[in-house]
Specification:
Largest sheet: 3 strands, antiparallel
Strand content: under 5%
Number of strands: 3
Helix content: 55-70%
Structural class: mainly alpha
Distance between the termini: 31 Å
């Protein structure tokens, strides 16, 4: 492999590894990232590591300060509010356009994605990374299918970026003491109602359901951090 291609490959591998660890909350929100520890834990070179962290900073998954270096972006109520507003601004018009214009292929994609999500059941005491990964993948696939008849590629791209950011909140809440409430809020019944409204071309009902669905994460996050001076819900994390 030419040196330039090898460098790109190692940088991409470092980026994907750290991004996955952050989205799955194994590198927990607010965790200080020590380059030496990251390098030995994940077997990364200095240059790929620094370039990967720069890319993650651009995605707001990592924050950098002059005196303290890099840290995983914290999870805060204000950021969640901002993220959910952005989600509605992107997902709602894409959903409404899909309801207006979606044909047989769109309907089939929505039904299939809903079926796959319904088959992935999480109990209140389930914290397996494998099952959580599967649920998050299928959950994202369902919402992606709902907006797949939208003509705007930019809206779909922004939606994917917002979904990635939301994964951290879902993962931490699904692993923390509020996981029972999280799973009630994200139960299949909510998704079934949203699917039915979309397939029935009931745009007004679909809008109400999507707004309620988006608000549910905020409600659970509020409950999980309701005690005075409570930090964001704890997640299992690697020490680096």
């Amino acid at each position: 492999m030419p040196p330039a291609a090898e460098s790109i490959s190692k940088t991409e591998a470092a980026y994907r590894t750290l991004r996955r660890e952050i989205l799955q909350a194994r590198l927990a929100p607010g965790l200080q990232l020590k380059l030496g520890a990251l390098r030995s834990t994940y077997d990364l070179g200095w240059t790929p590591l620094r370039e990967a962290l720069s890319r993650l900073e651009a995605e707001r998954l990592v924050v950098a300060s002059h005196n303290r270096g890099y840290a995983v972006a914290p999870m805060q109520r204000g950021d969640l509010d901002d993220l959910q507003q952005a989600r509605l601004a992107v997902e709602l018009p894409a959903l409404l356009e899909s309801i207006r214009n979606g044909g047989d292929d769109w309907e089939a994609a929505v039904i299939t994605a809903h079926y796959r999500l319904a088959r992935c059941k999480l109990s209140a005491d389930e914290t397996s990374d494998t099952l959580l990964d599967a649920w998050e993948d299928r959950h994202d696939a369902f919402h992606t299918a709902l907006i797949s008849a939208c003509s705007s590629q930019w809206l779909q791209r922004f939606h994917a970026q917002i979904s990635d950011q939301m994964r951290r909140y879902h993962r931490v809440l699904n692993q923390g003491p509020a996981r029972g409430s999280t799973r009630d809020a994200m139960a299949i019944e909510h998704h079934t109602a949203l699917m039915e409204a979309a397939l029935e071309r009931d745009a007004a009902r679909a809008q109400v359901l999507l707004e309620e669905h988006v608000q549910s994460t905020v409600t659970v996050f509020e409950a999980a951090t309701a005690t005075p001076s409570a930090p964001a819900p704890a997640a299992r994390q690697k020490r680096v």
